[in-house]
Amino acid sequence: MNSSVDPCSDFYEYACGQWIRGHPIPDDAPSVSNFENLGQDLEFALKELLEEKIGREESIDRESAIGKAKFFYKLCLNESEIFDNWRTTFDEVVATFGGWPSLGHRLQENVSIERLYGDMVAKFRADSLFKATVQPDDKNSEKHVLLIDQPALNLFARDFYVLAENEERLAYLQLIRDVLVLLHAPSESATFDAEEIIEFETALANITMADDQRHDIAELYTKMTLGQMEEQLPNFEWQLFFNQVFRDITDKNGTQIAFDEHAEVVIYGVEFLRRLDKLLPQFEKRRVVNYLEWCWFFKTMLRDLPDPFALTIFKFYKTLNLMNVQKVRWHGCVTRINSLMPMATSSIYVRHHFDHEAKKQVEEMISLIMEAFVDLLVSEDWLTAETKEFAKQKVRTMKQKIGYPDYLNDSKSVDHEYRMFRVYDGGYYKTKFQFYEQYQRDVLERIAQPVDRERWVAGAALVNAFYSPNTNEIIFPAGILQPVFYSKDFPSSMNFGGIGVVIGHEITHGFDDRGRLYDNLGNIRQWWDNVTIAKFEKKAECIEKQYSDYMLEQISMKINGRSTKGENIADNGGLKQAYKAYKKYQQSHRPPPRLPGVNLTHDQLFFLNYAQIWCGTMNDKEAVRKLRTSEHSPGPIRVKGPLSNSVDFAKAFNCPEGSPMNPIHKCRVWGRRCGLDFILSTLASRLLPSDMIAPWLIVLCVTLVTVSGRSQTRDLADIQWFDSVASKRDAGYWNDCEFSPMSCLLRRRRSAHRVLQ
């Protein structure tokens, strides 16, 4: 904390100032934050578990899932063995591709891009030309479907390709050239091929859609048969490609899976494929093959190799300012095994690092926060009655997964999941590529299976949380249930301000600009009526404009309010729900004493812990990269935005109206307003604070809206609501409202309306 700063002026500096000054960016990273530190703590915990007894080879049971994970980790650490053996595996794989022209191999006359890329997708999860996978159908969530989407570009942002020459693009060009030379390509041809590769990749980037144009998933969704694709996109043999991907995949009866012209494919952004269909004939096959094989090497081998390759890619990352010194090797090894065998690493992690009492406490919090969101839905006057009922149903049927799947307690079940994974002595890449293929096989085999709603979309050894729209479920892995998000020793205020806001955030994702498109069963369907959609979009537009006006002062760049809109809505909604649930929790629990040495109320601690989650700093290039690529706002904005929209925060810290953290105009998508949109536009500004007696004000408001005859009185629901409250003379009602009668009048002193003359 930096207690010398007024919390009502800059709460981020108040909450994080001292932390930032005490945590310089490490030399092997572009940024440091509380969130990242938690991830590093988890990585270190996995390192210790994977290295346990690793010195005695006989202690590793290479047939068990955990044994395979430990053996792979040991192979990954052995740089000298990798250096001695990598070329053998490399040459074997390149031979299956038919050679790599950049390395002097003759391009086969009958080379098929469809077969080559199909092999890469099947064996290495390639996504360099376009993404091809199997996932639940967004319009029939019980069934798996073939899916195609845009490619994953090697540089971090589309802008790095489509803008004029920049340092990142030039560094990437140099990397390609240097690596080709290290792979024994002639220097002259390496320069030429590197330029051709990046030219094709730039052309590919140019035909992709920017992230902020891809928010309407329903608009992007197109379902076509392979026959229709071959007819409309004739420059790629789609049936050949998919049958190549699935050539070794069988159903549960052992029957080969094959696709004819009637097979259906879901495409996200068919316009991208139309552009790709026009792009491919413009480039000779040699260039496309070189690009595909470069991407394969870059994504599957390069970042694992020791010097001189490690030094070459380090120079590239250093130019991008991602690090000033190379990371210690074990970091990458932990990351790789945790991504390839997530349930194996999760099983040992939760056995040693998960407090099972946390699951019960978090379940109680989820129940309260869901109840709080339902209460917010009930009070929303912009939702029609039918839409409101559907929304309540979606919340109440939302499934929750906390900690880890139960089967991780049974080592035999985990062993069975990884029974087809094989480890090879002295063969790091051979083992890694076999893991890749088995991981992808598991994904591809789902095409013949119904959707398993018990399946976890991620492992438990992860500092993150998720909302899955296909299954309408929220997931909180064990890795996030640790300080600063949660601790059984924290007061409830801090837990609700930490993991509680995360819970609310994920629930709100079911109702943000993307989540609202899915019904309670996980299907894209218009379950909101047009009137409600229009009102939602107006409220969401307020959030978009608010965040678009925020400047990240460090680099003098504004936030992209459009591409971050969904996450910003979730941040604001999550904060509101968690605080409301916390206040309800207080009603049935004895209030804890104040924390010793901390002169803050528990309401203030709620907001402080929320803010301190986002304490962090980053170098300038990382800041630019994140603003261009991330769907999340940077930490300072994740604090300022939601808190400046929160009346609860302003009350907790007694922030004067009009102060930076309590602006007069606030944006809300989800959150009770007590009919204020109408009242604030009609109430007179000449009344004095001394006039403020709550029941009298209610009667006055009803009188004003009834007799004014203004156009705003068309909203009969507001009048009926105020009439009901006025008849009860319930001044205590304001305790649960987002404004006070006092602020109602004071706020409108600048109003152009003059109802009382």
UniProtKB/TrEMBL annotation:
InterPro entries found in the cross-reference section: MetalloPept_cat_dom_sf (IPR024079), Peptidase_M13 (IPR000718), Peptidase_M13_C (IPR018497), Peptidase_M13_dom_2 (IPR042089), Peptidase_M13_N (IPR008753)
CDD domains given in the database record: M13 (cd08662)
A biological-process GO annotation: protein processing
Listed PANTHER family: NEPRILYSIN-2, ZINC METALLOPROTEASE FAMILY M13 NEPRILYSIN-RELATED
GO cellular component: plasma membrane
Peptidase M13 C-terminal domain ranges (all copies): 464-669
Molecular-function GO term, any one: metal ion binding
Entry-linked Pfam families: Peptidase_M13, Peptidase_M13_N
Family, per entry: Belongs to the peptidase M13 family.
Keyword entries, A-Z: Hydrolase, Metal-binding, Metalloprotease, Protease, Zinc
Keyword check for Aminoacyl-tRNA synthetase: no
Domain annotation Peptidase M13 N-terminal: ranges: 7-405
Requisite cofactors: Zn(2+)
Protein name in UniProt: Putative phage head-tail adaptor
